[in-house]
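Example 189.
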Amino acid sequence: MTADTIAINQLMDKFDGHHSVWLFGYGSLIYKADFPYLQRRPASIGGWTRRFWQGSHDHRGTPEAPGRVVTLIAEADAICHGMAYLITPEVFAHLDHREKNGYLRLATSMTFEDGDQTEGLVYIATADNTAFLGAASEQEIAAHIARSTGPSGPNSDYLNHLASALRELGRHDQHVFDIERHLAALRSE
Ligand code: SIN
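Predicted structure in complex with succinic acid:
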């Protein structure tokens, strides 16, 4: 599959005719809402776990030296906490561009903190996209992040902003916090 997913995402018609759609964000979409939204609510989705397994050619790295950003990996019983935004359909043009390096819109159900559930969309970069990097140890991922930078800034800012945003939400993510710890250790060497 091509790494540029804009054309594929424009074919997603599940919510056509809806005046607003819930979008679940679990990475930079938690802490960087550079788009208009009608409502913003902490939420979670089941069956997925957050991993720094996706390459970033356009934000936190380059095609020659990709950075590492998060995607979701299917895992039974896992729960991924993040932030949901209620947006109008026009906003997807901006989001499809922002998430074009391998992420596909997928329909999902999501659960708000009060237990209410709704249907919506999430951007996921699956293992068959050409920018996918796959598994590595948290220590290796930290070293990769430490040396990566791209048009949106240092890869370490992405990791640190995500870790802070998860703490603000009161959510523990062992993978993210382990990488943060290894990155801090590298910095103090
Ligand atoms: C997301 O935040 O939901 C997708 C991945 C990213 O943009 O970091």
